[in-house]
Design goal:
Elements (H helix, E strand, L loop, with lengths): L4 E7 L7 H9 L6 E7 L13 H21 L3 E4 L7 H6 L5 E3 L1 H12 L3 E5 L2 H13 L6 E6 L11 H17 L5 E4 L7 H9 L3 E2 L1 H19 L14 H7 L10 E5 L2
Parallel strand pairs: 1-2, 1-3, 3-4, 5-6, 5-7, 7-8
Antiparallel strand pairs: 2-9
Length: about 270
């Protein structure tokens, strides 16, 4: 019997309230034979409900690094950093050994490019656009990006009035599709997993939920790792720091890396 693919999805906040929501959504989205661990950081890393500020990202980066090293030691095939900023993606990849690491923005844009020639990204606040756009361009999608469409809502605001949030998301999507000719849409943030299906029905284009995209991209990469023997490079720009140097510096493997863990057995 083949061992299950093991994927860890880390919500990079010291708050476990959303973990059951992701776990429930992933049950119906995973491939048969995939084991998923939905985790979050310890509260002492900062009981954030979001990391939409760079200062918050700075606070949780150490926790992400600890978590990815712990997951690699546990033998996970793939690891997801659950924030559309793709926080600490490159840092985590350096330290992930043979484990694949992905995140919502890079995964969503890769999938969008397999479905369409041009895509738009719907986001909460104008503040987010600079950092997210920089990521999208760095992934090589300059000519495919129709634009970013903000709905003037912070992460926590998305849950205040679902009807209002839904209308703003649909209005932004309609602008992207009908005025800027986007052929696919990516949700940089959403009020609930699964809402992308309602948007698809209304707008008539693929709408990509970033959490699901990251999970599916992790599964795909993990399967390639198993089936084809392709593992992440550790040469040149991907080189990891020397273990003895990290041990001398200290702080990389201290404390409990996870504040919560929900396991979806294969």
């Amino acid at each position: 019997m083949t061992d299950p693919l093991k994927i860890m999805y880390l919500s990079p906040v010291g708050n476990a309230l959303d973990d059951p929501i992701f776990a429930e959504a992933f049950k119906s989205q995973r491939r048969p034979g995939t084991e998923i661990h939905v985790t979050s950081l310890p509260a002492e890393d900062g009981a954030f409900t979001n990391i939409e500020y760079r200062a918050y990202e700075g606070r949780v980066t150490t926790g992400i690094i600890r978590a990815v090293r712990a997951a690699a030691r546990e033998g996970f095939d793939a690891f997801v950093i659950g924030c559309f900023y793709d926080t600490a993606l490159h840092e985590a990849r350096e330290l992930s050994s043979s484990m694949l690491v992905t995140a919502p923005c890079v995964a969503s844009t890769e999938i969008a490019m397999s479905l369409a020639n041009h895509f738009g990204v719907i986001v909460g606040r104008r503040k987010w656009v600079g950092q997210m756009k920089s990521n999208v361009l760095s992934y090589g999608h300059r000519d495919a990006l129709t634009g970013f469409y903000h709905v003037d809502l912070g992460v926590n605001d998305f849950q205040t009035d679902h009807d209002e949030t839904a209308q703003r998301l649909l209005d932004a999507g309609r602008k992207a599709v009908e005025e800027d000719y986007a052929e696919a849409l990516i949700l940089g943030c959403t009020m609930e997993i699964g809402f992308h299906r309602r948007m698809e029905e209304v707008l008539g284009v693929p709408v990509i939920d970033p959490a699901i995209a990251a999970l599916k991209r992790a599964e795909y990469g993990a399967a390639l790792r198993r089936d084809c023997g392709w593992i992440p490079s550790r040469k040149w720009s991907c080189e990891a720091p020397p273990e003895e140097e990290m041990a001398r510096i200290g702080g990389f493997d201290v404390n409990e890396p996870f504040g919560n863990r929900l396991v979806l057995a294969a």
